[in-house]
């Protein structure tokens, strides 16, 4: 995994750019709710920030269709440039009457998060053999910066005001854009128009449904998210009723879980590449199940250990699923396939969060934790009980021997990257 950073200069630059972008994203948008609370004194107005930032996810299939019809690198450069300018509009916020500017910037962040241009670009940038390691590194840095970025963003806002927050956010987009601009990518050709619009927009859903390997991984994730949203509410009851701590201790638990996710991110790529996406994902569900069950006991050390195990397990799920989408979906289906999976997952997670909020007064939080643990265990078993052969790897332009930073083939050609035009490479990859 670290060899990839040392030897692939294009990915190394992308990694640096994503580090700045992830830091700026989470530092700024999480502080926007605090800003609105200060301006209006309304908890509801502050909560609208989180509603607005998730709303564009409903349009993810449309955004995925757009991503597959254009070149991804220029699209991302334009989006970063627009965001760098738009975030600076926060400098004009002077009172409660200017809250609409904050909401507008929040909406723009939501559109950026919901647009699957970044995962789609990775298909053309990375050789297939590096997919798991790259996803693992990107998830690790994203989870790592989230440990400190919300505190840093809130600190900048508290010490210097919203204007400094705007400058910070804009600067991170400028850095991300400059780094991406320095990366040369030979992109796959955009999908030509011709297919009926509605059929093209929903192509990602149809593709996942017709590939049993991807469908099984996706259904396991959806089933898990349909229950694990209970955690968003249950953790407050656990901290209060079970551990006898104040609500602020939830932040400590979140930080510990984030630390676990950094460790999980480092390990996930290694395991997924070694044992495959099914077993790697099952290992993640297993860790999460153990962690959730430990949280049932009203003992602080067990609860802390359980929370960290949940954090360790989550990246295994994300790395396994994102690696599978990278490998088995064609380059010009990446936008729609990623959008289809993320939109369904987001929908069921949102429903389970709402269910948790409605049920917390009726059901003991320990029952919720136990239910989530059972759900995670069932997801692990569903991936291990019946094996499905991995489909053919859908090769990208980055797999070609003459692609930039392509790995050298050993003498005699053994182990050389597969050639998409070679009929011999059309065979199914062996089951793992």
| Alpha-carbon Rg, integer | 22 Å
Count every helix, treating DSSP H or I runs of 4 or more residues as helices. 18
Shape: globular
- Sheet-strand content, in percent, reads under 5%
Oligomeric composition of the shown chains: single chain
Number of DSSP strand runs? 0
Q: What is the terminal-to-terminal distance?
A: 21 Å
Q: What helical percentage do the residues reach?
A: over 70%
Low-confidence stretches: 408-432
Order of helices and strands: HHHHHHHHHHHHHHHHHH
Major beta sheet summary: none
Overall mean pLDDT stands at 85
Written overview of the protein:
- The chain is an all-alpha fold.
- 73% of the residues lie in helices and 0% in strands.
- Helix 2 packs antiparallel against helix 9.
- The longest helix has 32 residues, at 9-40.
- It is globular, with a radius of gyration of 22 Å.
Short description:
The protein is mainly α and 432 residues long. Helix content is 73%, strand content 0%.
Please describe the structure with a list of short key phrases separated by commas or semicolons:
single chain, 0% strand, globular
Q: Secondary structure elements and their pairing?
A:
Elements lengths: L1 H6 L1 H32 L2 H12 L5 H10 L2 H17 L10 H16 L2 H9 L5 H30 L1 H20 L15 H5 L1 H8 L1 H17 L2 H12 L6 H27 L1 H18 L5 H29 L5 H26 L5 H21 L47
Helix pairs in contact: 2-3, 2-6, 2-8, 2-9, 3-6, 4-17, 5-6, 5-7, 5-9, 8-9, 8-14, 8-16, 11-17, 12-16, 12-17, 12-18, 13-18, 14-15, 14-16, 15-16, 15-18
């Amino acid at each position: 995994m670290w060899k990839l950073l040392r030897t692939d200069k294009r990915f190394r630059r992308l990694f640096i750019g994503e580090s700045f972008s992830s830091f700026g994203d989470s530092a700024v948008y999480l502080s926007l709710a605090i800003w609105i609370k200060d301006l209006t004194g309304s908890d509801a107005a502050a909560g609208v920030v989180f509603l607005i930032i998730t709303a564009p996810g409903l349009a993810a299939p449309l955004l995925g269709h757009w991503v597959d019809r254009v070149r991804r690198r220029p699209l991302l450069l334009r989006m970063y440039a627009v965001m760098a300018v738009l975030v600076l509009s926060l400098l004009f916020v002077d009172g409660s009457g200017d809250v609409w500017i904050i909401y507008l910037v929040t909406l723009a962040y939501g559109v950026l998060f919901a647009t699957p241009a970044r995962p789609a670009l990775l298909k053309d940038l990375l050789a297939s053999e590096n997919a798991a390691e790259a996803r693992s590194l990107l998830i690790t840095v994203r989870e790592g910066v989230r440990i400190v970025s919300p505190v840093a963003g809130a600190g900048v806002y508290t010490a210097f005001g919203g204007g400094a927050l705007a400058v910070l956010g804009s600067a991170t987009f400028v850095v991300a854009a400059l780094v991406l601009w320095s990366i040369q990518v030979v992109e796959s050709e955009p999908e030509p128009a011709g297919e009926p619009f509605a059929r093209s927009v929903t192509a990602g859903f149809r593709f996942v449904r017709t590939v049993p390997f991807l469908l099984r991984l996706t259904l396991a994730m959806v089933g898990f998210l349909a229950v694990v949203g209970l955690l968003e509410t249950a953790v407050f009851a656990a901290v209060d009723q079970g551990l006898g701590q104040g609500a602020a201790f939830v932040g400590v638990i979140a930080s510990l879980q984030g630390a676990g996710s950094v460790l999980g991110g480092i390990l996930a790529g290694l395991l997924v590449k070694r044992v495959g996406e099914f077993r790697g994902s099952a290992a993640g569900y297993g860790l999460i199940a153990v962690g959730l069950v430990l949280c049932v006991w009203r003992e602080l050390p067990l609860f802390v250990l359980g929370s960290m195990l949940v954090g360790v397990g989550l990246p295994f799920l994300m790395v396994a699923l994102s690696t599978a989408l990278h490998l088995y979906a064609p380059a010009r289906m990446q936008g729609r396939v990623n959008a289809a999976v993320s939109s369904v997952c987001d929908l069921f997670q949102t429903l389970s969060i709402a269910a948790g909020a409605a049920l917390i007064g009726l059901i003991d939080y320990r029952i919720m934790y136990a239910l989530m643990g059972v759900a995670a265990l069932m997801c692990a078993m569903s991936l291990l009980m019946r094996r499905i052969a991995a489909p053919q790897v859908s090769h990208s332009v980055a797999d070609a021997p003459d692609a930039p930073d392509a790995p050298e083939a050993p003498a005699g050609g053994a182990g050389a990257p597969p050639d998409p035009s070679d009929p011999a490479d059309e065979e199914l990859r062996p089951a793992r």
